[in-house]
Amino acid sequence: MDARFLGIAELAETPSTAVVVDVMRAFTVAAWAFARGAEKIVLAESLDEALALKARHPDWVTLKDGPPAAGFDTVNSPGLLRSADLAGQTVVQKTTAGTVGALAVKEASLVLCAAFVVAEATARLLRTRECGSVTFVVTGDDGRAEEDLACAQYIAQRASGARTDPTEFLRRAGTSRAAAELAQGVRQGAHADDVALCLELDRFPFAMVAALEEPLMVLRPYAADAGEASAKSRGE
Ligand SMILES: O=C(O)[C@H](CS(=O)(=O)O)OP(=O)(O)O
Ligand SMILES: [Mg+2]
Questions:
Q1: Relative to the CA of 76, which ligand 1 atom is closest?
Q2: Does the CB atom of residue 95 touch ligand 1 within 6 A?
Q3: Which ligand 1 atom sits closest to the C-alpha of 77?
Q4: 31 and 203 Cβ atoms separated by less than 8 Å
Q5: pTM (2 d.p.)
């Protein structure tokens, strides 16, 4: 498999297959939302779009990064989301890096959103589809976020079938700037367990596939065994 690792700003053309990686925290949070029963996640282009969707669909659950804000039901924290009941819910997510990265490749034939918690399921789907060329979008820090790059490189190795010891990849993520900022309370809307939850390798058995459902970009869980979008795990 030919793997490229690019920051969002480096995406010059639409890739065929894109794996958008945000370990801390957007796609760890998305996986937890599905584990807690969410049916789908709408990836919002902006805070204003998220609020407009909420106005049209008051029952949808709005989620943003940073501190709590009016019009948003919750924040971008796996530690806070892990006890939420989202059964059958539609979540609207807007974050600084992860959702922006997914929307940047929305025209790609296959878009997977990934973090360590869904690493093996993501790699398995890439193997099953026999994707010859994969663009990994390293969403944080203009493509230099160590936690995202480490996760992307780990998934790429597993997707090519190589036996891979995850220890060093997880160590790099655990010593990243994002991990330090979360641990030090620099990032708002956080829980003390967020870093540990973001480093749980293969916590969930499903991959996450994003696709245009005009006019929205919608993320859904993809359980390889069922061959269709569904996540059976309740996450606890
Ligand atoms: O919520 C996060 O951890 C970040 C926000 S920031 O990097 O602190 O600005 O958003 P994400 O898109 O999940 O990386
Ligand atoms: Mg991030």
A1: 1
A2: yes
A3: 1
A4: yes
A5: 0.94
